[in-house]
Amino acid sequence: MISDKTVYSLHRISGLVGGLFILIITITGSILVVDRQVDNLLNPNQTHIEPVGQRQLYGKLLAALHIQFPTAQIRSIQLSESHKDEAVRVDLTDKGERKWVDINPYTGAVTGARNADDTLVRRARELHENLLLEPVGGFIMGLAGICLLASVLTGTWYYRKSLLSVFKIGVRWNKSPRIVYADIHKWLGLVALLFMLMMSATGIFFHWEQIERKFGDRPKPDQAQVASITIERIPVDSSIAIAKASIADFQPELIDFPKPGDSTLIIRGNMPHSIRMLGKYNVSATVDARNGHYISGFDARDADLEYMAEHIFEELHFGRYGGWISQVIYILFALATAVVTVTGLLIWLIKR
């Protein structure tokens, strides 16, 4: 049997090793939970529009965009039809730079163009996943997830006999700073216990996937590549129409455009009965970008267990599945995790 003293040492070491990185994870994670709202708040003149008149056809919007960015390779377009006061966002690569271009779907006017990699939400995601130091930073953040998991498990075991008594004792504000910090540490640690376990486990899972992709077997490139398709030749609106006609109650929300050498347009969205825990987009239609012919459809409910598990873990990690209610809950728990980390560091400093 491992002694409680050894368990406490492991708890302290894992907390100290992962402390700074856990703080980064909680702060950036809070931003990512509400990334859309944060980006709209920071760029109201670009993302907010007045819904006046009829929405223009997407083909017309992209044709106007092509005039302004003639050499751009469009990656995707967010349709935003369910958010009528938000601009349509086009994600494109132009002269080696990734840009987000916002377009008013009612007037066709470009409301703003910015370097996507310089936006707060993109920086927060890169910092959250790899400390802006890919791939080494990804390994470090994976280690931070392991430290958080180890800290939670060892802390739970060490305080197992008095775990629930923290609610009875509360925070003794009239005591010394060390006792106050210890009470806050244990109280919030217990409150956020399941949340921290879930965040660390799912975070470790995603970083392990990154390692597998980095060092695993890479798919061989397709030798039978097709010529690149120019944007003005892609029948976007008829492709959306045939996707809706082929999949009952389909509500398109995003379109992925063909990569160089590819010829397929993937239209992603949901249906009224889609299960949010299976991903942001449950349904997709694959269309031939050359002629708009429907190729195939996909429904997450029919996917294999691996696909379902990956997307459930992703939803559990980012907490968007319950709308603003789950987002607020996740942010509060993330802040609680940050306070647990800080108070743990303060307790260590006082004891030195």
Structural class: alpha+beta
What is the global morphology?
elongated
Low-confidence stretches: none
Count of helical segments? 12
Beta-strand proportion: 5-15%
**Count of separate structural domains:** 3
Main sheet properties: 8 strands, antiparallel
Helix content: 40-55%
Number of strands: 8
Q: Strand order of the main beta sheet, please?
A: 4-3-2-1-5-6-7-8
| Mean pLDDT level | 91
Order of SSEs: HHHHEEEEHHHHHHEEEEHH
Q: Radius of gyration from the CA trace?
A: 24 Å
First-to-last CA distance: 28 Å
Structure explained in plain terms:
- There is one protein chain.
- With 352 residues, the chain is α+β, with helices and mostly antiparallel strands.
- It folds into 3 domains: 4-36 and 124-218 and 322-351; 48-122, Nuclear Transport Factor 2, Chain: A (Roll), CATH 3.10.450; 232-314, Nuclear Transport Factor 2, Chain: A, CATH 3.10.450.
- It has 12 helices and 8 strands.
- Strands 4-3-2-1-5-6-7-8 form an 8-stranded antiparallel β-sheet.
- The chain is elongated and about 70 Å long.
Task: Describe, in short, the structure shown.
The chain is of the alpha+beta class. Helices cover 52% and strands 14% of the residues. It is elongated.
Topology:
Elements: H1 4-33, H2 35-42, H3 44-47, H4 58-68, E1 73-78, E2 88-94, E3 97-103, E4 110-115, H5 120-130, H6 136-158, H7 165-169, H8 177-191, H9 193-215, H10 236-246, E5 251-256, E6 264-270, E7 283-288, E8 294-299, H11 305-318, H12 323-351
Antiparallel strand pairs: 1-2, 1-5, 2-3, 3-4, 5-6, 6-7, 7-8
